[in-house]
Amino acid sequence: MNKLVLLRHGQSQWNLENRFTGWKDVPLTDEGIKEAENAGELIKFHKVVFDHVFSSVLQRANKTAELALKKAQMLHLFENDELIYTRSKHLNERDYGDLVGLNKEETALKFGKEQVHIWRRSYETRPPNGESLEDVVNRVSPFFLNYIKPFLNDNKNVLIAAHGNSLRAIMITIGLYQANEISKIELPTGKPFLLEFDKGKLVNNYYLN
Predict the structure, then answer these.
(1) Could you tell me the pTM of the whole model?
(2) Domain count along the chain
(3) Residue in 9, 52, 90, 163 annotated catalytic
(4) 90, 93, 131, 163: the active-site residue
């Protein structure tokens, strides 16, 4: 049996400020750093050892992976103190278009709570000049199936450090949730979600505690 761990990055500066972040490359906060290190402690405690690591190209996800794996003492994944992993924009967060940088409460006052809720939670509706969750699935799914799933089929353990919506897209791709369910799923920052596979088939899933 092999494992896939989905890890949403630790708290970012714009998470703290309640802003739409999208592809904006913002850093982790001090709390986010602690969350990433705590994720590493949990991974170490549960004795999960990774063969391959994937992340987006955004620093909040990259730094989370680096801090977690150092804390988990997976030195085989580092060379000259640099994490060896695959970064891809296909795993980036959803692009919120014109909403990027705006405070979520102020945006609700400007456009109305109902409209902002539709932009955030509808599967098919795009915010102005941005992506819908369906667009994110269409971006993430081929990358997952072509580049990550083969490692799982080969009985390897994989870590994906990414973002709330790109990780939701992976959950849809592997059949854990349907499109009409996924908007209700909240992924906490810095908390490893483990999925167990047996011969390529998903058999169990749970958060590491």
Answers:
(1) 0.96
(2) 1
(3) 9
(4) 93
